[in-house]
Amino acid sequence: MSDRHFPFWPKGHPRSMSIPATSLFYNAEVAAARYPDKPYLVFYDSTVSFAEFRDEAGRIAGFLQRECGVRKGDRVLLFMQNSPQYVIGYYGILRADAVVVPVNPMNLANELRHYVRDSGATVALVAQELYAQMKPLLAEGLKHIVVAAYSDCLKQPTDLKVPEFVAAPRQAIDDAGVTLWSAALAANHRPGPMTAGPDDLCVMPYTSGTTGHPKGCMHSHRTAMHTLVAGEYWFNMKPDTVRLAVLPFFHVTGMQGSMSGPLFTGATVVLLPRWDREAAAQLIQRYKIGAWTSIPTMVVDFLANPKLAEYDLSSIQRMSGGGAAMPEAVAQKLLDMGITYVEGYGLSETIAPSHINPPERAKKQCLGIPLYDVDSRVVGPDFQELPPGEAGEIVTRGPQVFLGYWNNPQATEAAFVEIDGKRFFRTGDIAQADADGYFFMVDRLKRMINASGYKVWPAEVEALLYGHPAIQEACVIGTKDAHRGESVKAIVVLKEAHRGKVSEQDIVDWARANMAAYKAPRIVAFADVLPKSATGKIMWRALQEKEPT
Question: What is 449-546's CATH number?
Answer without folding.
Answer: 3.30.300.30
